[in-house]
Write a structure and sequence with these properties.
Largest sheet: 6 strands, mixed
Number of strands: 15
CATH class: Mainly Beta
CATH architecture: 3 Solenoid
Number of domains: 1
Distance between the termini: 39 Å
Radius of gyration: 17 Å
């Protein structure tokens, strides 16, 4: 690995830690997060394994190491998935991200989230998630759906259709609404408790 690549990887890791600090109220410091966050560990391992997966000669190695990472962190990210910058997985346990999933920048997932498929064909079969999306605990986003920027998906919701930018999706199957202009997000939680994440 060249000096530029190492510098770039360290800068990206710093961004990931900064994003985790901003989103995790239980974090007491960067060192604590670096040592104890399974979500960060899974993301960092994925960034290395994704590079291996892109090279035909090391694809099998990437898949095998991904299984080791899953057993250590409780997070399963296929090495073929594409992850954006400042991505954060809070708690981590039970998160599954499929091979053809694409995740934008500044996305946050809670535990038990699945970005999964509804087809076994070798095509684009996993979700594409835009920027600044939050997906609540236990939510399932299935199939080659597109999740627009700034979407919030409530805990335990099941999404099988595209969601437009700025939408709030809750329920099974997920229903969509848009926040009202000037709506207090805290008060909105009591009107729509499924958004609790």
């Amino acid at each position: 690995m060249s000096g530029n690549a190492i510098g770039s990887a360290l800068a990206q890791a710093r961004e990931d830690v900064d994003a985790a600090m901003a989103r995790d109220p239980a974090a007491n410091g960067r060192l604590e997060l670096i040592l104890t966050s399974p979500g960060l560990h899974a993301i960092w391992a994925h960034r290395v394994l994704h590079r291996l997966f892109l090279r035909p000669g090391t694809r099998l190695l990437a898949r095998v190491l991904a299984i080791v990472v899953r057993s250590v962190t409780g997070v399963e990210i296929h090495p073929g998935a594409v992850l954006g910058r400042r991505f954060f997985i809070d708690h981590g346990m039970g998160v599954v991200i499929g091979e053809t999933a694409e995740v934008g920048d500044d996305v946050m997932l809670y535990h038990g989230v699945t970005l999964g498929a509804r087809s076994s064909e070798k095509v684009k079969r996993h979700p594409t998630v835009g920027n600044r999306v939050t997906i609540g605990a236990g939510a399932k986003v299935l199939g080659p759906v597109y999740i627009g920027d700034d979407v919030q998906i409530g805990a335990n919701s099941v999404v099988v259709r595209d969601l437009p930018a700025g939408a709030v999706a809750t329920g099974i199957p997920a229903t969509v609404r848009f926040p009202k202009a000037g709506e207090d997000p805290y008060e909105a939680l009591f009107r729509d408790p499924a958004i609790f994440i």
